[in-house]
Amino acid sequence: MGKTNVVLTSPESGTQISPVYDYTEEQQAQISALREVSYPLYAQSIQLPESDPYHVWEARWLNKPDTMPRYMRAAKWKYPDAQKRIKGTMEWRRDFKPELIVPDEVKIESETGKIILNGFDKDGRPILYMRPGRENTETGPRQLRHLVWCLERAKDFMPPGQESLVIIVDYKSTTLRTNPSISVARKVLTILQQHYVETLGRAIVVNLPMLLNFFYKGISPFLDPVTRDKMRFNPDLFELIPRSQLDADFGGEFKYEFEPESYWEQIVGHCGIAPDGTRLPGYFDGPNTTQEFTQKHESAITSPSLEAEDTVESLDPASLSESVSPEPEDTKVLESLVEVGAPEKPVNVTL
């Protein structure tokens, strides 16, 4: 395979998406009840009015097929907790507006390739490469907005049925100056664990110098045992990622050469991002959805009298607070970080 500037935007042919969640009838009822109560009944009481410009994007997020299942899994099937989590994320998204980050606002953060979205693992998860040694800007809010923009694009890259991503952190050439501070790392963890629940599938760390061991010791108090189990240091990447999808810097066959303008244009174009941060026609629900699906949901969320499709008329949502179904084995593998920087008492959360 020769050198290329072309970004990989789909998994290797024949990839089987994993994990695939097989919910019990009770869990399906809980997901449906959360959807019924969260939208339009529960969320309507706290949702932005239709006159608000962000209303359509909030409804879009609530309507995505993975939103309610992810929050139920994150809450370990505790219904009131799932409601609180969704409410908290709705409030954060209103303030941060991740769907509306203008590409040119964060483009400078991408110029050195410190965060690159490219390729997929053997389970069809998009890969987000992070190289702290390529840091090119001073610490500030724009760095976090760039990270969130990249997370949203990784969501766009996910093939149907996939809900998580892989993060590979490469510490090659990283110094104490370029490595993020523990305080910045905590802010990143807060965003990931509170507002992108059940989204981290694997976290891989490679080329970590002894000098930076203190960094992971500094953040380790905020990682629960399951998260530590999910992190891998210098693993055999060929067991996780097809050689054709793995960057040659890590021994793969994919000889990708980063060129900032070409990379940026490909990511923005594939995801259908408009210059003002919104979506181009036909890309409202992302590049990996059918036209029929897109039209269906565009029509639904702009309707003034939206009704949830999967309701449970005979189920009393309040009764779900005492119901906790056993978690699927795959769900345990995906449990994640402990909440950082919360204003009140900490809550266990899941990526």
Can you walk me through this structure?
- This protein is an alpha/beta fold and 351 residues long.
- Helices cover 38% and strands 8% of the residues.
- Strand 1 and strand 2 (126-130) form a beta hairpin.
- The relative contact order is 0.18.
Helix content range of the residues, please?
Answer: 25-40%
Instruction: Output the helix-strand order.
Output: HHHHHEEHEHEHHEHHH
Given as residue ranges, the uncertain stretches (5+ residues, pLDDT < 50) are 290-350
- What's the main sheet like? 5 strands, mixed
Continuous helix count: 12
- Through-space gap between termini: 35 Å
Structural class: alpha/beta
- Overall 3D geometry? globular
Count of extended strands: 5
- Averaging pLDDT over every residue, what do you get? 79
Determine Rg (CA atoms, Å): 20 Å
Adjacency order of strands in the biggest sheet = 1-2-3-4-5
Any key phrases for this structure?
5 strands, CRAL TRIO domain-containing protein, disordered C terminus, 351 residues, 5-stranded mixed beta sheet, globular, alpha/beta, 38% helix, single chain
In short:
The chain is an alpha/beta fold and 351 residues long. The chain has helices at 25-46, 55-63, 67-74, 79-96, 103-106, 141-157, 182-195, 213-219, 225-230, 260-271, 291-301, 329-333; strands spanning 115-120, 126-130, 165-170, 200-206, 231-233.
